[in-house]
Amino acid sequence: MRRVIRFAAAAALAAAGAWATDYAVEGGPYVSSAGTPGYDGTRELKWDSGSGRWVLDWYTGGGSWVGNDFDISTIRTYRVIKAVRFDSMPDWPNGRWDGFRFGIYLFGGVPGKLLWPTSGGGYFFKPTGPRGRKEAPVNWALPAGVTSFVAAMEQYYNHPNCDPYLVDNNLSFTGHSWQYYGGTWELHVGYQGYRNVMLRVVVEEAAAVAPTSLGRVKALYY
């Protein structure tokens, strides 16, 4: 891979209030490995293309988050967030895994309060194995009435003692990727116009009572 270091790189955004972001950048292209299994009764929600363009971390990234918003209002039975899937690598910037923290935030046009972990602070997860798509367990049901949320990951450590995140190879911004940097949530700045964060969620269908068969109903009356 070709390595590019970008100091105080400012992306032009239509949204007001965008600031310069202090990125370290690893070049691409990068194709995610399909290293995560499927599950019965689940759906994977995503906005990325599956192919990465840039590998990013912040020089001062501790306490900074990136994530994607999702809306399950049209699939109401899928209320359990089983896992967060994300793309990363141990190769760069320091040749090892360091770990992220994960959280589920309320979403109402912008990310709101932290919903999960209910204890607050984020769930720490350290990947293992080679680069590729990884999966952080969640196994938590959304509260009643909540259908929109942001799944997010925190860099947690500063460069170079950290793990990076990826943006995909689609120059068309979906408008669903966010960053918490400098104390404020804003749409993701990205790098050279690439802004879609490679982070997905697996939602699980809530358990339902199997309907009584017609034969068993008839047996009650005949």
For the termini, the CA-CA separation is: 74 Å
Report helical residue fraction. under 10%
Major sheet attributes? 7 strands, antiparallel
Shape: globular
Total number of β-strand segments? Answer: 16
* Secondary structure category: mainly beta
Radius of gyration: 19 Å
Low-confidence spans: pLDDT under 50, at least 5 residues?
1-20, 209-222
Helix and strand pattern? EEEEEEEEEEEEEEEEH
- Residue-averaged pLDDT, rounded? 84
Number of helices: 1
Domain count: the total is 1
> Strand content of the residues, in percent?
35-45%
Could you describe the 3D structure shown?
Strands 6, 8, 9, 10, 12, 14 and 15 form a seven-stranded antiparallel beta sheet that branches. Strands 1, 2, 3, 5 and 13 form a five-stranded antiparallel beta sheet that branches. The protein has a four-stranded antiparallel beta sheet with strand order 4-16-7-11, with no helix packed on it. It is 3% helix and 41% strand. The protein has one domain. With 222 residues, the protein is an all-beta fold. The longest helix has 6 residues. It contains one helix and 16 strands. Strand 14 and strand 15 form a beta hairpin. It is globular. The termini are far apart.
Secondary-structure map:
Layout: E1 3-5, E2 23-26, E3 30-31, E4 42-45, E5 51-58, E6 65-71, E7 80-88, E8 100-107, E9 111-116, E10 123-125, E11 132-141, E12 148-154, E13 165-168, E14 177-181, E15 184-187, E16 199-204, H1 214-219
